[in-house]
Design a protein that fits this description.
Blueprint: E1 2-8, H1 22-31, H2 38-56, H3 62-72, E2 83-84, E3 91-92, H4 94-106, E4 114-115, E5 119-120, H5 126-136, H6 140-160, H7 174-186, H8 190-202, H9 218-238, H10 254-258, E6 265-271, H11 293-307, E7 317-324, H12 326-331, H13 348-351, H14 355-365, H15 376-379, H16 382-388, E8 391-395, H17 397-404, E9 415-421, E10 426-431, H18 446-457, H19 463-473
Parallel strand pairs: 7-8
Antiparallel strand pairs: 1-6, 2-3, 4-5, 7-9, 9-10
Helix pairs in contact: 1-7, 1-8, 2-4, 2-18, 3-4, 4-5, 4-9, 5-6, 5-7, 5-9, 6-7, 7-8, 7-9, 8-9, 11-14, 14-16
Length: 506
């Protein structure tokens, strides 16, 4: 059973009791010793595989190289043995492992997602929780409990509280969820988790300019920063340090000044006492390396490529109109009014957030590749640019309604497309959810997660290391104290050149 918790702003003289504050309620859920179901455990294993897949595929990309170099400058702290970094065997302090691995997981925008009132990639919870687990020698069961909480809290916040409406970046829900997950894993008391959640929120609020205009490399760093802050917040809270109270509801708090203001009111769903944490089952991963709103459109473009090959030639096409949800139109569509979304010289991060570009390339190629589809050569191809510039988007109220629906059976992330050819022919089609979505044409299961991992790791990881990792991660519930190092994945010799990393302060 889910309990709905009313959240509003309180004046200081109202003196909101601690147990009625959202951060305290989150901490209470985190401290609940309820067991994790087999179904949730199975999905947690899937998502650890998924994170490793996308991290290993990005080991030599600039943001990862820089973040890894920063982490390697910070030796394990005295509180444990340190944590491991994707691709190598070196140990670093856990907050820096959370940082470097968080960047690696997010860089390709290729792991799981949950979309409701807010947007999220809840797999971002795994790097900080796993880093602390390796550092302190947690068991596989401990880790599972921590990740289940991280997903639960982030998804519940995302269901209830919109950040993007006020141009606040979505990682403001990640800091509290990761702190809560670490608290669960370590078996911390409610008060300690409460203080950690508050500190994690306070330090991870930032604007959405990181996802606007010329999108920079910070896009991959933002969730990693939230994870790092969560680790540090837990450390401070364990040492008895306190946080701003009430962090959400205070008259100078996050809601009053960053979100809906002093008259705001939300209803946040949280599991009732003794209720299992199942929110991970509401989330979904990506088959393609692109912003989640693009997943269904890539699948529809592949279908149109097969059924109507004439639309791949811009000389045959007068216009392509995509009717979709408010978010897709205004954030990654032509409604964003970002000229960079039509610029062949734009960064990968920008192209990743351009539905006109992604639909045009997938329409021409009938496929999508996490590297080749973003290459400067691919983006600059004259016939692609010509077709790309014929693609526009507009908001359709029905697709917006379905996007926000709480009914999983009708919730949709796609839309309809109208392709008008130069001879007057009109081709129309639509898609509600991506093929890999649980309600899609080819839902992802363990087999698909493993196939994705094998594909992305094939060039960088030795076959025996691939098999070792897959064996270990699928035995996660049985892994004992100190055995979670087995969840790291090491690249083949020569794949990573640590000496070539850029120099900084550390």
């Amino acid at each position: 059973m889910v309990e709905m918790h009313k959240v509003r702003v309180y004046k200081s003289e109202e003196n909101l009791p601690r147990e009625d504050q959202l951060a305290h309620k989150i901490a209470t859920v985190a401290a609940d010793p309820v067991e994790v179901s087999d179904e949730v455990t199975e999905m947690i294993v899937n998502r650890i595989i998924d994170n490793a897949s996308v991290a290993i595929a990005s080991l030599n990309r600039g943001p990862i190289v820089a973040a890894r170099a920063q982490a390697l400058a910070h030796a394990p702290s005295s509180g444990g043995k340190g944590a491991l970094l994707y691709g190598i065997t070196d140990r670093v302090s856990p907050e820096w492992a959370a940082w470097a691995n968080g960047v690696a997981v997010r860089e390709l925008d290729y792991h799981d997602t949950f979309l409701a009132a807010e947007y999220s990639h809840p797999g971002d919870n795994i790097p900080p929780i796993l880093a602390v687990a390796q550092h302190v020698g947690s068991t596989g069961r401990d880790l599972i409990r921590g990740i289940a909480t991280g997903y639960e809290i982030q998804v519940d916040l995302v269901k209830a509280i919109s950040l993007h409406k006020h141009k606040i970046d979505h990682v403001a829900h990640l800091g509290p969820s990761a702190a809560a997950g670490i608290g669960t894993m370590l078996g911390l008391d409610v008060e300690t988790i409460f203080q950690a959640v508050g500190q994690a929120l306070h330090t991870t609020t930032a604007t959405r300019q990181s996802r606007k205009g010329e999108i920079s490399t910070w896009k991959a760093h933002a969730p990693a920063f939230a994870g790092k802050m969560a680790v540090e917040a837990v450390d401070r809270a364990m040492r008895g340090q306190t946080s701003p109270v009430p962090i959400y509801e205070g008259e100078d708090g996050v809601i009053a000044w960053m979100l809906d203001g002093p008259d705001a009111a939300y209803e946040v769903p949280l599991p009732a006492p003794g209720e299992a944490k199942r929110a991970i089952l509401d989330t979904y991963t990506k088959e393609h390396s692109a912003e989640y709103q693009a997943q269904a459109w890539i699948d529809l473009a592949r279908k149109l490529h097969r059924e109507h090959p004439e639309v791949t030639d811009p000389q045959n096409v007068a216009s392509i109109l995509i009717r979709t949800s408010h978010h897709t139109h205004y954030v990654i569509g032509s409604g964003a009014n970002d000229p960079q979304k039509y610029d062949p010289t734009a960064s990968r991060e920008t192209l990743d957030h351009s539905i006109p570009y992604i639909f045009a390339v997938a329409l021409q190629d009938g496929t999508w590749h996490h590297v080749d589809s973003y290459s400067p050569e691919r983006a600059g191809r004259p016939d692609t640019v010509a077709l790309w510039h014929k693609v526009t988007t507009e908001e359709d109220p029905e697709w917006t309604r379905r996007y926000h629906s709480l009914d999983i059976a009708e919730k949709a992330f796609g839309g309809s497309v109208v392709i008008t050819l130069t001879d007057g022919t009109v081709i129309e089609d639509e898609i509600a959810v991506a093929d890999a979505h649980p309600l899609g044409a080819r839902p992802f299961g363990r087999e698909q997660y493993i196939a994705k991992f094998r594909t992305l790791a094939a060039e960088s990881v030795a076959p025996e290391e691939i098999e070792r990792f897959l064996d270990a991660v699928q035995r996660l519930p049985q892994l004992g104290a100190g055995e979670l190092d087995a969840l790291n994945i090491v690249a083949k010799e020569g794949v990573i050149d640590l000496a070539s990393a850029p120099k900084g302060l550390f």
